[in-house]
Amino acid sequence: MSNSNGWGLTARLISKHFGALGDRVSEAIANFDPETATEADRDRLADTLRSTAQKLAAARASFDKEHNDVVKLRELIASDERAAETLGERLAAGKISEATINLFCDELEANKARLPLEEQEAADAKEYMDELQKIVDALSQQLADFDAAAKKAMQALATANAQRDLQQVRAERQEQLNGLKGLQGNSSALNALTRRAQAVSNEAAGMKIVADIGQRPHDQKAELDALRKSVANEAAGGGESALERLKRLSAKPAA
Fold it and tell me: Residue ranges of the domains in the chain?
């Protein structure tokens, strides 16, 4: 099958199922991008209002013309009716011909016969204009209601998005906390660091033990020296009487 035949078949299928396809596509777009879909709906409504308003402007111009034609025709008929009496006097006096009078009468009768038609055309134009005015008013109100509903919907969407973002942040925070808890309990790095600290502590304890062993002979010698000195002092002071001690303490050193 050639490309042209393929495209032709595609076009026929789209044309056959265009209604349902268009609805599904519109719904999909609206769900995917509701802001743009809302703008498109509003643009469509605004275009309808704009085109109807243009028709209303044309209808007003048409009515104004038809109305003016009726007013002028009525004024002409009234003027000719007033002139008919004067023309009759002139005809009786021979100041004007019957042909002229007949022509005048023909025009007056034709105008009177045309007046109902002109009035009907003006009435039809007014009715059409009034109907368009009602449609424009309804579309204007519909557009205002649409804007109000769209604003409310957008505010609701913004609130929902904010709530969703808040819950997402809370979920992420909870996930981070859970990750930290898991890190504290299962982290190989923390476990290695803990083992390293214990090993260093054990090493320090072992070094202290060795140092204590090496220090023990020195401590024992110091204790022994202190004991000997204490014993010697007690022995030296044990045979001295109180009088001899006073003399010793009060004796002045030799000059």
Answer: 3-29+39-168
Q: Which helix (H) or strand (E) holds 239?
A: none
- Nearest partner of 107 among 67, 80, 89, 83, judged by Cα: 80
| Polymer length in residues for the chain | 255
- Of the pLDDT bands very low, low, confident and very high (cuts 50, 70, 90), residue 127 is very high
For 137-153, b where at least 16 C-beta lie within 10 A, e where not — what string?
A: eebeeeeeebeeebeee
CB 66 within 8 A of CB 118: yes
**Matching residue, tokens 């995917």:** 32
Q: What dotted CATH number matches 3-29+39-168?
A: 1.10.287
Provide the CA 3 distance to its chain's centre, in angstroms: 45
What is the rounded distance in angstroms from the CA atom of residue 39 to the CA atom of residue 174? 38
Distance CA 119, CA 139 (A): 30
d(CA 55, CA 132): 8
Calpha distance 191→199 (Å, rounded): 12
The whole-number pLDDT of residue 18 equals 46
Q: What is the pLDDT of residue 131?
A: 93
Dihedral in degrees, nearest 10, Cα atoms 191, 196, 199, 200: -150
Taking the model in full, what pTM does it have?
0.52
Going by the DSSP 8-state scheme, the letter that residue 246 receives in this structure is H
Q: Are 131 and 60 in contact (CB under 8 A)?
A: no
| Position 29 pLDDT exceeds 50 | no
Q: Which two tokens stand for residue 43?
A: 């643009």
Burial of 163 (0-12, 13-18, 19+ CB in 10 A): exposed
Indicate the residue type of 32: F
Distance CA 123, CA 129 (A): 10
Encoded amino acid at 9, one letter: L
Torsion of CA 150, 152, 158, 163, to 10 degrees: -140
